[in-house]
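Progress narrative, work stream C.
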Amino acid sequence: MTKARSGRRVTVLLVDDHAVVRAGYRRFLESDPYVTVVGEAASSLEALSCDRALSPNVIVLDIALPGVSGIETLRRILIRRPAAHVLMFSMYDDAIYAARALTAGALGYVSKASAPELLVEGVRAVADGLQYISPDLRRSISALSTRTNELAHSLSIREHEVLRLLAQGHDLNEIGEQLGVSAKTVANLQTTIKQKLGATSALQLIVMARQIGLEYVESKTV
């Protein structure tokens, strides 16, 4: 991670559904004389509206928003403004969540368990277009990425195809139709894949698949 440049003024949009949390982190951010919070939002809709009106240098975005999630909000922001610099800021300090946010296009991820000054450091780095991950997550994300890629090689061709289709958002019936097998067979394959990859839920399995880019892989003959 490259050190952020100093002396650059940074405008920030702060997105969190708790007003007290926003107020507290606004104070921390504006303790840096070069950082100014130009807007606050409590929901995905408000975040998109504020981003459209303000075009801030950095959007500090919580994952756990009511209704539309922070990850989906991130995707919608980047569709409208691909050059937006987003720093995810969340109570979730699991590497899975951080990896998912980075895969979706965030430039950085800071857990709320981190020291407050790291949020300021992250904002400055992301404003310069640099990736920033809070120290408590860097090593675990690296280990997760390496482990996921290694485990993916343990899958059979058919299991790999099922995992790809899951990553693309297909349900068990749709996958069965595409592969010419029953939904029950697909469910059994999904269970085997979860065991091989060490996933504890279907959601975690999808996150792992997307982490290694399977949603972008074209279909192949199985």
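Work stream C, second folded protein:
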Amino acid sequence: MTPRTRALERGRVARTVADEYAMTSEREGANEGFGTNEEMSDDVRALTTLVADSDGGAALGADARKDADAMIGKLESVGADATVKPNDDPKIFGYYDVSYVSVGEKQVGNPAGGRFRSPLGRFLFKTIGLEQNLFAPNKIENRVAFTLFGCLPGEVTLEGTFAPAEGVDDGRTVKASFGPPGISVAGGPKLRIGPKSSVVLSTTYLDDHVRLGKGSRGSLFVFTRKSEEKAERDHRRWGIGGLAIAIMLLTALGLGIFGVHELRTTSHTLYSVTVVLASAISLAMAYILRDGGIVAEDADLDDDVGELSEQQKAFLSRGRGDGENKGENVFSSQKA
């Protein structure tokens, strides 16, 4: 077990013990106000667990997709009875990952990401991030982060505004109007390519953890809420190393073209093959050096361990006397 893994495990144990204490204290009335957000329901937990790390649902089999759609339908019935309509609820604003998309029968193409999320698009532009963010009072942002051929980072953004859909007064349905898509590769300038667009989307369920949506052509969406700090970290991570990787790829391309040319036009076979191999190695290095050559575990670390509350810290650090002038906490005991 690596030192980082041991640290992660210790953090998880600490949080588990502290959380159990906090929940017990809350039941006993000694911890009023602990946890201001509403608790995640079993149905929401089951849905988010099913669609987690599924590449927006693309990695799920047919049976799992049916289960996900059924869970969404169950939560939609709960959302229909909500006293506060989603369009009037401030909880609707925030950063959201697009965790699952079920394409409607009348939908043409993928409603989240368009051609970038088609089979060919996912092959050429590997999706590493998919968001739909809502900001007060009526701003909307769709974001697709990708790596070209698995190493060169880029993103496509759609920015626009939303308003209640004309002729629909249900407090759930809005029409979002977007400007032309903005495409940026390797941290370069954002190019506006393509037409303006609009979509109609209904919010069928909303709580502190998820927002469920339904498109006008029957597509279903699961948007998982994340904090502003997590969103900012994701945006930095998605674009890391863009210029350096671009330079390395251009170098590899130049070496490859030169090597092939030398191989075809000269008798220096060994030299030409060496240049081609150098090109291949440069390509491999560009792939390895993407994200600094590491797999970011900090996302799991923050989500699973995170910062302890003051009450949890107090519990984990406080001592208890046993009449022998000795203090003890959950990890060790020592003489005073």
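The chain has two domains: 35-238, 242-293. No further action is required on this item.
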